[in-house]
Specification:
Elements (H helix, E strand, L loop, with lengths): L1 H21 L6 H21 L5 H22 L7 H21 L1
């Protein structure tokens, strides 16, 4: 169950990062509220998952999901560049996440 909560926490990290970008420096009310609400949920679920998962594993997976999710949203929704080097870096992040999960057993 901790892994499921950790994945959901990572998805909420993507939500808050995206909303933060849309808030334009917290100058827009609704995206700012979404940012803080999603942060609250994300941190809460991360904290819950750390009850049984090691700190290094939980934090690495949480930030990795957020990084890859934000990368995908940036390209698919915000029109950011999808260069070969950026995609290669994203693949390496995913490989690291898989290795973290495999190391847990």
């Amino acid at each position: 169950m901790a892994w499921v909560m950790l994945i959901i926490a990572g998805l909420f990290e993507v939500v808050w990062a995206t909303a933060m970008k849309q808030s334009q420096g917290f100058s827009r009310l609704v995206p700012s509220i979404v940012t803080f609400a999603a942060m609250f949920v994300s941190f809460g679920l991360l904290s819950w998952s750390m009850r049984s998962l090691p700190l290094g594993t939980a934090y690495t997976v949480w930030t990795g999901i957020g990084a890859i999710g934000a990368f995908i949203i940036g390209i698919a929704v915000l029109g950011e560049a999808a260069s070969a080097m950026r995609i290669g870096a994203a693949v390496l992040i995913v490989c690291g996440l898989v290795m973290m999960k495999l190391a847990e057993g």
